[in-house]
Design goal:
Number of helices of chain A: 0
Mean pLDDT of chain A: 92
Order of helices and strands of chain A: EEEEEEEEEEE
Order of helices and strands of chain B: EEEEEEEEEEE
Number of helices of chain B: 0
Distance between the termini of chain B: 31 Å
Low-confidence stretches of chain B: none
Oligomer: heterodimer
Helix content of chain B: under 10%
Shape of chain B: globular
Number of strands of chain A: 11
Structural class of chain B: mainly beta
Distance between the termini of chain A: 37 Å
Largest sheet of chain A: 6 strands, mixed
Strand content of chain B: over 45%
Mean pLDDT of chain B: 93
Helix content of chain A: under 10%
Strand content of chain A: over 45%
Number of strands of chain B: 11
Largest sheet of chain B: 7 strands, mixed
Structural class of chain A: mainly beta
Shape of chain A: globular
Chain lengths: ~110, ~110
Amino acid sequence: KNQVEQSPQSLIILEGKNCTLQCNYTVSPFSNLRWYKQDTGRGPVSLTIMTFSENTKSNGRYTATLDADTKQSSLHITASQLSDSASYICVVTVRSNDYKLSFGAGTTVTVRA
Amino acid sequence: DSGVTQTPKHLITATGQRVTLRCSPRSGDLSVYWYQQSLDQGLQFLIQYYNGEERAKGNILERFSAQQFPDLHSELNLSSLELGDSALYFCASSPTPSAGELFFGEGSRLTVL
């Protein structure tokens, strides 16, 4: 069973609208959580990193939240643009000797005009 | 531009053949990761090297092998290719094994006919 679960698997929104993506993890002990954006056919690019003590972090129109107690994170996209159409991947790092990375399967966001 | 270079960008070959994918990490990054992404699937971790040594191994088939050279570039060798090996193969690098952020290349798209 994947230790990082993302929902929804995909969603379609109209340009200008907001959306929220969810990431639940069971990874332990926790080091950090990153959200990556992957455009179709391109390599993923990091959007934000959340450490244990951080609750909210923004990067432009992207805002990530973290609840380390419930092991949940969300990525909120505000005023979506066509260029936000991509797959968003949640990656959790285990705090251990090898700092293993656990990847979610991603949420595919399609923004329509 | 992430600074990670992968070649070739596209490769078409036949079943049973062998191919080599090459990755040059970002300047100064000692750790290299290989991932496989099949159509509409998430990133599957294959293998990680740090400063020339194998650091972690994921779901890498025995037909696949990799190495990291003294100049830190890495190669992923895929042999006895099967139709199911068709995928995007991504290389990523990070400064250390414990660095949370990975910098991904643009990928090598392998098509096995």
